[in-house]
Amino acid sequence: MIVTPLRCETAPPPRVAPPVARAPDDEDAAAPAGDLVCATCGRRISHDDHRIAVNGAHEHTFVNPGGFVHVVGCFALATGLAYVGDPQSAFSWFPGFRWQIAACGGCGVHLGWIFRAAGDPFHGLLPAQLRRG
Questions:
Q1: How far apart are CA 74 and CA 125, in angstroms?
Q2: In sequence order, what are the beta bridge partners of 47?
Q3: What gap in Å lies between CA 3 and CA 17, rounded to an integer?
Q4: CB-based burial of residue 102 (10 Å sphere; 0-12 exposed, 13-18 middle, 19+ buried)?
């Protein structure tokens, strides 16, 4: 945004060239409606169209063995993530699924987990760590 001082004159304002269109892959290009991005760095993670219900609901609240409460939303697809550690089956919130921590591939913030079972993976993402793109 360019801010210029106010001027009082009778001449017409100077002509300004129209803005140049940005390429779709520019980092600061407008995200499509429904995009969900990392709240910390803005990296695209998922989209509203990828919301799914698992065990009858999209959103679940769980307590981990350390006593921390986590609200997770289930998504069929999430990109831009890095997975931390080996898949684990102990303390899985979804029986029959192994879990692995999912962090933002841009800034490394914990965004949730990927849950994997034979050919049926999904992501449990932390809504508090996401924002609209």
A1: 6
A2: 35
A3: 16
A4: buried
Instruction: For 46-110, give the DSSP string.
Output: EEGGGB--BTTBSEEEEE-TTS-EEEEEEES---SEEEEEEEE-TT-SSTT-EEEEEEETTT--E
What's the pLDDT tens digit per position in 56-81? 999 999 999 999 999 999 999 999 99
Render pLDDT for 75-93 as a digit per residue (tens, 0 to 9): 999 999 999 999 999 999 9
Going along the chain from its start, the domains and CATH numbers come out as: 48-132 (2.170.150.20)
Task: Name, in order, each residue with C-beta under 8 angstroms of 52's C-beta and a sequence gap of 6 or more.
Answer: 58, 74, 75, 76, 122
DSSP code of 26?
Answer: -
The reported pTM is 0.74
